[in-house]
Amino acid sequence: MEKVCILLIIAALQQFVVSAQDLVVTNTDDSINCKITNIKDDYVYFTFSHQNDVRNTLMPKSQVKYFQYNYYNSSSMQPHQIVGYQSDYPHWRLAVSGGWSWRTNPLDKSLTPQEREYAKKLMQGLNFSFDASYFFNEMFGIGFKYDLFNASTSLYSLTETISINFAGPSFTMRFLNDTKTNYWFINYCFGYMGYTDKAKTPGQSAMIKGSTVGLLLDIGYDFAISKNWSVGIQLSSLMGTLTEYDFTENGYTQRKKLEKGEYEGLNRLNISFGFRLNL
Questions:
Q1: According to the 3-state scheme, what is the secondary structure of 79-147?
Q2: Region 242-254: what's the mean pLDDT?
Q3: CB half-sphere exposure, 3, CA atoms < 13 A
Q4: Closest Cα to residue 102, out of 215, 220, 2, 185?
Q5: How many domains does one find in the chain?
Q6: What pLDDT was estimated at residue 3?
Q7: Structure pTM?
Q8: In this predicted structure, what is the pLDDT of residue 80?
Q9: Which residues pair with 140 in a beta bridge?
Q10: How many CB atoms within 10 Å of residue 20?
Q11: What's the CA gap between 197 and 161, in Å, rounded?
């Protein structure tokens, strides 16, 4: 599943990393690669590049046979060369999100049916995340992300809770629409991933605690609901592998290093929704 998420992110990156250009077809069947800036008073206004020279012009609608927005996936013009271009964009993005998570590593085949059902309940839970990003231009930004997963279940007198948290710096790509209100975004994060498994029975407790390096990838879309506020949806893939941990039972702690076939996979998928503040 993580591979599917990564492929979706790569596909989105390939789609949006380029600047889309518009198509204008004249009555004489000439095709013009341009950026339409306005359609008003029976005229089509557009900016185009000719022999390394950027020109702003207009054409009567009567001479336009057809036009289509975002027809071309390439441009020879920089955004600031286009008439009507606005450099005023939000520099800060603060986001809180919550939703559902599924751990994707396969269960041990040796588990009994009852143990398998118990383990499945610990493989899915709720997530909460916080993002803070600063954009030094319209597309690229850096920041920090925190993500928490929590799942719990019980069987007879046993209660168990698993928490996995991620924290680390982020590199963000944002793809604003023409009005700079809605946007696609992709987060790449690399940082600390911590794992805690607490189990309790009457008169006895045990805890497994460890950490590793994790990778987090987000792809999502934010919809503006006011000048500064947005709501958003995002799909996240988190990857990490625990190779050793501390085991504590009734106050006594020992370190355990896992063999290759015993590694604890921390991979999971999140789908979440939340609010964003754009400043």
A1: HHHCCCCCCCCCCEEEEEEEEEEEECCCCCCCCCHHHHHHHHHCCEEEEEEEEEEEECCCCEEEEEEEE
A2: 92
A3: 1
A4: 2
A5: 2
A6: 54
A7: 0.72
A8: 55
A9: 173
A10: 15
A11: 6
